[in-house]
UniProtKB/TrEMBL annotation:
It is found in: Cell membrane. One of its GO terms (molecular function) is galactitol transmembrane transporter activity. It is a multi-pass membrane protein. It comes from the Bacteria. InterPro entries: EIIC-GAT (IPR013853), PTS_EIIC_2 (IPR013014), PTS_sugar-sp_permease (IPR004703). GO terms for cellular component: plasma membrane. This is PTS system galactose-specific IIC component. It comes from Lactiplantibacillus plantarum (Lactobacillus plantarum). One of its GO terms (biological process) is phosphoenolpyruvate-dependent sugar phosphotransferase system. The lineage of its organism: Bacteria, Bacillati, Bacillota, Bacilli, Lactobacillales. It holds the Pfam family EIIC-GAT. Keywords: Cell membrane, Membrane, Phosphotransferase system, Sugar transport, Transmembrane, Transmembrane helix, Transport.
Length: 462
């Protein structure tokens, strides 16, 4: 009997991430009383999105693998880790059964907090559970599969996301001109960087308070940049840059430029398939949760692109792209070459909410925080590469021993996950002390930040 169960489980795992998620998403949707047609549609969309994203990653790494090696050899700059943006994280997490466990924790935590009136937010953005899942996988990996510590870490992250969603709601209303009674907010994990953004913003108030006098209109800047700030163009710049420094032929440089351009565009295009894939399941869960809350009025948290209509997000993302590339070249301890994550939409929404759209402040704060994103991506490179290889999702085109990583959201939480996971593995007294200090500092800063966001003084800032 046990052998039969084990063989069945091994067969299921052997289907691969895409087929596994097709089955799991379909069955879960049916369990939450989604119609059979919509359930199958969601499962099929998820499998297609995972397959498509894997294909784009392989396209990029196959083209850039040899050139990156030549780039490192010719320049002496040790940027030996290839950044593939958020895509490989989505592939790894949605191909892991742990993600479903973390999703269950998210639903239970949200329900408990709502019943206890610790939050007014119902988070229906189930797709972005992968952002939380990668944090859980990091803790689990570095703790040598300590699922208890991992679960506590994940639950705390989910709670912080919901507290933050409540706190930023008035600012979202102000920035987007929402009418009274609007219930839309976002609990996106990338916004957990906002406490650090707030600290730097306060330092600007003290050191260079006059900076706002020189601010400019982001929408006008976007129009002036036009195509030259598009994903196509930024990818082409990167391809030419790496090709020239890697002393490639003109033909190879052209291939790199065009491949990078289409890859960055396809990352965004294929990435848009994930949202609709999870919508039927999210709708089923929303109906289930709402029916158990006795008609209580709630905020509903969806994905961060509710803020995408603000031109400042895209203007600052374009400004930060070349800045990040320069910093990556000279930053001590960094080994990541920005590529897939060079357009920092994992940071600019947080900058927008804290500064309320002041472009110069956003750019200064973004520049200050870029190193944290690079260091975090460097730190998780070995974990991502090893995990991806174990799951059979290692991007094609990577050379033997070559690492890949992701410049993505939650750099502080990723580094905290590594520290806490390592502590749970060894219980070394020095690591325990560092962990306690880090947790205390993080908690104090977060509480201060929440109070600041909710303060009357902050809300009056235009």
């Amino acid at each position: 009997m046990l052998n039969t169960i084990q063989n069945g489980f091994d067969f299921f795992i052997g289907l691969g991430g895409a087929a596994m998620m097709f089955v799991i998403i379909t069955l879960l949707s049916l369990a939450f009383r989604v119609s059979f047609s919509k359930a199958v549609e969601g499962g099929l969309r998820m499998a297609t999105a995972l397959t498509g994203m894997s294909a784009v990653i392989s396209l990029l790494t196959s083209a850039f693998g040899p050139s990156l090696k030549a780039f490192v050899e010719s320049t002496g700059v040790s940027l030996s880790v290839t950044d593939l943006g958020w895509a490989p994280l989505a592939v790894i997490t949605w191909g892991s059964v742990y993600t479903l466990y973390f999703a269950l924790l998210a639903i239970i935590t949200n329900l408990v907090m709502l019943f206890l009136k610790l939050t007014n937010t119902l988070n229906v953005d189930l797709f972005n559970i992968w952002n939380v899942s990668i944090l859980g996988l990091i803790v689990n990996y570095f703790s040598n599969n300590n699922i208890f510590i991992t679960s506590i870490f994940v639950v705390i992250i989910i709670m912080l996301m919901l507290f933050n969603a409540d706190a930023i709601k008035p600012t979202i209303d102000q920035l987007l001109d929402y009418k009274p009674g609007n219930i839309t907010t976002t609990a996106h994990p990338s916004l957990l960087v906002m406490p650090i953004v707030m600290i730097v913003n306060k330092l600007i108030d003290i050191v260079i308070p006059f900076v706002d006098k020189f601010d400019f209109d982001a929408e006008t800047l976007n129009k002036k940049i036009g195509f030259w700030g598009s994903k196509f163009a930024i990818g082409a710049y990167l391809g030419v840059f790496i090709g020239v420094l890697g002393r490639q032929s003109v033909a190879d440089i052209c291939t790199l430029a065009f491949t990078a351009g289409v890859s960055l565009e396809l990352f965004a295009y294929v990435g848009n398939w994930f949202g609709p894939a999870i919508e039927p399941l999210s709708a089923g869960i929303e109906r289930f949760m709402s029916s158990h809350l006795r008609g209580r009025k709630l905020f509903v948290a969806i994905d961060w692109p509710i803020l995408a209509s603000r031109a400042e997000i895209w203007a600052v993302a374009n400004l930060l792209a070349p800045i990040m590339l320069i910093i990556a070249m000279i930053l001590p301890g960094n080994k990541v070459l920005p590529l897939g994550g060079i357009i920092l939409t994992v940071l600019t929404p947080a900058l927008l909410l804290v500064t309320k759209g002041r472009v110069i402040r956003m750019t200064i704060i973004g520049t200050v925080l870029v190193p944290i994103f690079l260091w975090a991506a460097t730190a998780i490179g070995p974990f991502l590469t090893k995990t991806s290889a174990k799951m059979g999702n290692l991007p094609k085109g990577l050379g033997k021993g070559q690492l890949f990583s992701s410049i993505d959201s939650d750099p502080i939480e990723k580094l905290m996950g590594i520290l806490i996971g390592s502590t749970a593995k060894t219980w070394d007294l020095k690591l325990i002390l560092f962990s306690i200090i880090a947790i205390l500092i993080y908690a104090i800063v977060f509480i201060w930040y929440i109070k600041t966001m909710k303060s009357k003084k902050f809300r009056e800032v235009k």
